[in-house]
């Protein structure tokens, strides 16, 4: 009975937490904290943006005083993004500042970090010069810095800047311009000066922020990036002054949109997210090799080489650049698993540089069931992560005639034959995957590739249809975001607010007639009845359970009698219409 009660209480808390974290009010509050996500970025002059546009892959480094704490304060662990430990654990300023006396990253080796980045295939490094905690990782006139406040006494930013230049990598600084938790007047910092007088943001800006940005822009040679973060409600005049300063001192540096007021050169998507559709313009998505940005002792949720490559290739295929973070520990070392997987991914990139560097986006506009596509002029690189088992790789919608096709591996090139079946191209490939983690098939088209972007349903690969790609009537398609652990964002496009007769309709291109096992992914409350229909009159209707988190439920067998274009319609027949939230439908070909 007792444990039952405990479980119920825990479940109650979980539901409450989930409700708060997904509520619009909470999202708004977090938006205030994290700043304007809708900021539009302009496009920089082509010379300035060349590294960004063509490199497509950079290393992000979160490293600071918080790395020495590693997610733990006085024996208690903070299970969230490690660089927020001071604020989330309410560590008093004087105690936090005292940590500097113990921070001695003697294993820091700039050349080794640069070697890892370079061998990983990354083209630049962006590192935290100062994060929200206010501690400068560079030599500054402000005393709260690594050279003057720690036994280490070296300037690691100087060492890293030099090592990057030596190795031909781009180099840039992250600088928290708005939040400063330890400087009077900084956002979320002390409201009063030590003498009791009130501190203004202007004061923080003049005495610290502007001076330090000048220091990072003048002490470390040419910078490729200045990456400001969390503008929040910082007045525009301050952002303008910083932008002017960067333009004057570092004319070739790219600014990300998080500087605020649309004054950046490119859009930073952030959010640890690879977007589902192609996005125009210059943009980046930043992501982490595990969950936290800065080192956290317990965080072992590493992305392996396959996952790193899959996210990188998908980001490039959507038209963006991938900024992947590592968090060196308090001694200055990149955690071994991160290093290992990055290097492994780098070996693959080294074999297939044209898939990544200066590669254009996928003409399909979205991921395909087995992987993704990047381009170089009239050459398509099909990057296949889920290799088909039956010797046929199916490509939907390519309208342009193919000149040639070949599998490209380290051992060489093997020509591949193809046939056209309606809108589909079928490549004859070996049953065994020719390369791991991903195989590359290079296709030369006779002219600029033209594609019908209709989603495919494949006879030999599982297909997930996201509601993102469905036409919705009588219900509401909306993005939900929530934090999993603190600072770890999850987001999903879902369809909620189901009215009677509400529908999500996908148009798909079915390669072959046949039987498919269908699943739906949703959350909700209580048991619900969903209906799935095709334009051929096939129908599935069944009751399933639901949960407060997204879960995938089997619905049964659905038959397509004819190949070609079809519509698939999902509707909610019975159940809590307020709570129902549909995110995807999945098709598994049946044997
Ligand atoms: C910010 C920081 O608060 C965090 O510590 C880390 O440095 C990260 C890279 O950037 O966090 C953000 C900022 C913006 C968004 C999400 C997290 N966003 O736009 O959704």
List keywords for this structure.
591 residues; alpha/beta; TIM Barrel; Immunoglobulin-like; Jelly Rolls; 3 domains; six-stranded mixed beta sheet; 14 helices; 25% helix; 30% strand
Identify the bound ligands. 4-nitrophenyl 6-deoxy-alpha-L-galactopyranoside
Roughly what fraction of the amino acids lie in strands?
A: 25-35%
Largest sheet: 8 strands, parallel
Helix content: 25-40%
Explain how this protein is built.
The chain is α/β, with parallel strands linked by helices and 591 residues long. The protein folds into 3 domains: 34-356, TIM Barrel, CATH 3.20.20.80; 371-452, Immunoglobulin-like; 463-589, Sandwich (Jelly Rolls), CATH 2.60.120. It is 25% helix and 30% strand. The protein is built from 14 helices and 30 strands. The strands form 7 sheets. An 8-stranded parallel beta sheet has the order 7-6-5-4-1-10-9-8, with helices on both faces. Strands 19, 21, 24, 26, 27 and 29 form a 6-stranded mixed beta sheet that branches. A hairpin with a 4-residue loop joins strand 26 (528-534) and strand 27 (539-544). Helix 7 (110-119) packs across helix 13, helix 10 (201-218) runs parallel beside helix 11 and helix 12 crosses helix 13. The radius of gyration is 26 Å and the shape is globular. 45% of the residues are buried. Mean pLDDT is 93; it is low at 1-46. Bound molecules: 4-nitrophenyl 6-deoxy-alpha-L-galactopyranoside (JFZ). 4-nitrophenyl 6-deoxy-alpha-L-galactopyranoside (JFZ) is lined by residues 34, 37, 81, 83-84, 229-230, 270-271, 286, 293, 489. The site of 4-nitrophenyl 6-deoxy-alpha-L-galactopyranoside has 12 residues, from loops.
